[in-house]
Write a structure and sequence with these properties.
Elements (H helix, E strand, L loop, with lengths): L2 E6 L6 H9 L3 E6 L8 H7 L2 E3 L9 H12 L3 E3 L6 H11 L14 H11 L6 E4 L2 H10 L4 E5 L9 E3 L5 H18 L13 E5 L17 E9 L2 E10 L10 E4 L5 H16 L6 E9 L5 E7 L7 H9 L3 H9 L19 E7 L17 H7 L7 E4 L25 E7 L2 H18 L5 H5 L1
Parallel strand pairs: 1-2, 1-4, 2-3
Antiparallel strand pairs: 5-8, 6-7, 6-8, 9-10, 9-12, 10-11, 11-14, 12-13, 14-16, 15-16
Helix pairs in contact: 1-2, 3-4
């Protein structure tokens, strides 16, 4: 039987889900670089031949640690679904001669390198400048058009994103961005292999997006993501994920599979994503490419990752299209034949629709809830009606326990201040969108009020 080393860190699909798909293809050994979610620990004990939790000192040379563990268990393949471990796993695979993302994997992590690669190919994207300190930040603001978006080069989940509307805001924004990246590192949401990555930033012009003219229904966000895989250097698109509008500045609220776009629009978006992925020279990995939609058919690539989309993107694809992307990638890495979709799948091939919603303490317009509330999924499930044939559930791995106070939303911390992740299945994408809109509207009214002590915290 084949053996796979699963390198776990925060981010990616729920651990229990991912482990079950890997274990169905091979013996699996788990190298846990983050503390396992309590909800996933039983699955890890049941499914894994071994679970190793290295101490901090052992992680100083992460590539050597992964190589050593892979050799110890006789791994035929190494996988990770975390943004923060992609580069280390790719380098370990290269050292061992195993199939992996390849030597250019850092181009799909460091947004500065990514944007330079796209600029060299003339690929449509926002104008940008790398910034290493406040002085470079000021210089960039003098050459780009305000407003600007400051973002960490190695972050995920919109962490440390800030909109800069005038040069006077630069000092405070710079200090806050660095503080948030330090806080994120303490929480485990930070690059695990590249030293000092939390201090790397870039600024970019904010392009004007619109969903008008792209969707036949109002309420959709002005960007989509193209989910896919690179197999032996060839990009294979799988499908598109639609979005609700982001919470200011650009925190993702929800992803819905499939994106209900006309065929011609989907083909154009996929073609742009293909250019973006091809420019990075990846070899064998999942991909997740975000594309901003504009007026008159304009598009800009925002970023690409050398891993599958996070949260519930992969489970949604399995539910809607019947494709186990994790299992398929494992088979490919093990040298087994895999039949990838001939082209990106559409609503015509879908069996209903599925979406995941990040619970944040803000309303549809991004305004903070008027009072503190306590997360309680049974209340949500029993109070909120969903569409006919709709099914609402909570993703325990990504949610606070019932009774925990919903965090106050911090625009700079982004998804770090989420309370829960809800999964919804329905007959079509429009039904999922409508149910999510109703959920966002109802949450600050139906969730229990926090106690007096919690309200003052």
């Amino acid at each position: 039987m084949s053996t796979v080393l699963f390198v776990y860190a925060k981010g990616g699909p729920p651990l229990g889900y991912a482990l079950s798909r890997v274990a169905a293809r091979s013996a699996v050994h788990l190298l846990a670089l983050s503390t396992l979610p309590s909800t996933a620990a039983p699955a890890a004990e049941r499914l894994c031949a071994s679970v190793v939790n290295p101490d901090r000192a052992e992680r100083d040379d992460l590539v050597s640690l992964i190589v050593s563990r892979a050799e110890a268990v006789g791994a035929d393949a190494i996988v990770t679904f975390s943004e923060y471990a992609v580069v280390a796993v790719a380098e370990a695979c290269a050292k061992l001669g195993l199939a992996g993302a390849g030597g250019s994997s850092a181009l799909a992590r460091d947004k500065r390198l990514m944007r330079r690669a796209w600029m060299q190919r003339g690929i449509s994207q926002p104008r940008f400048r790398p910034v290493a300190d406040e002085q470079e930040f000021r210089a960039a603001a003098g050459t780009l058009c305000l407003p600007l978006l400051l973002k960490s080069a190695w972050s995920a989940g919109s962490t440390a994103h800030q909109i800069i509307r005038s040069a006077d805001e630069i000092p405070a924004a710079w200090d806050r961005a660095n503080a948030v990246m330090a806080e994120s590192a303490e929480l485990g949401y930070a690059e695990l292999h590249v030293a000092g990555a939390g201090a790397d930033f870039l600024v970019e012009e904010i392009v004007v997006g619109t969903a008008d003219g792209w969707f036949g229904q109002s309420g959709w966000g002005d960007y989509v993501s193209v989910e896919g895989v690179v197999a032996d250097g060839e990009f294979r698109p799988v499908c598109l994920t639609g979005r609700m509008p982001t919470v200011p500045p650009f925190t993702e609220r929800a992803g819905i599979t499939p994106a209900p776009l006309p065929d011609d629009a989907q083909r154009r978006i996929v073609a742009l994503a293909r250019e973006a992925v091809d420019a990075l020279g990846l070899e064998n990995c999942g991909t997740h490419t975000e594309v901003k939609l504009g007026a008159d058919g304009r598009m800009w690539v925002i970023e690409t990752a050398a891993r599958f989309g996070g949260a519930m993107t992969v489970p949604q694809i399995e539910e809607v299209f019947g494709l186990d992307l994790i299992g398929m990638l494992v088979d490919h890495l093990l040298g087994r034949p895999v039949v990838w979709p001939a082209q990106a799948l559409t609503s015509q091939e879908a069996r209903g629709a599925a979406g995941s919603l990040v619970v944040l303490a803000v309303d549809a317009a991004g305004n903070a809830w008027p009072d503190r509330r306590v997360w309680d999924f049974p209340t949500v499930r029993d109070t909120l009606p969903v569409s006919a044939a709709g099914r609402l559930s909570v993703v325990a791995d990504n949610s606070l326990p019932d009774g925990a106070p919903v965090p106050v939303y911090d625009p700079t911390a982004g998804a770090n201040t989420m309370a829960a992740l809800c999964l919804l299945s329905a007959t079509d994408p429009g039904a999922v969108l409508r149910d999510f809109q109703a959920l966002v509207h109802a949450l600050p009214k139906i969730l229990p009020l926090a106690g007096a002590t919690e309200a003052r915290s």
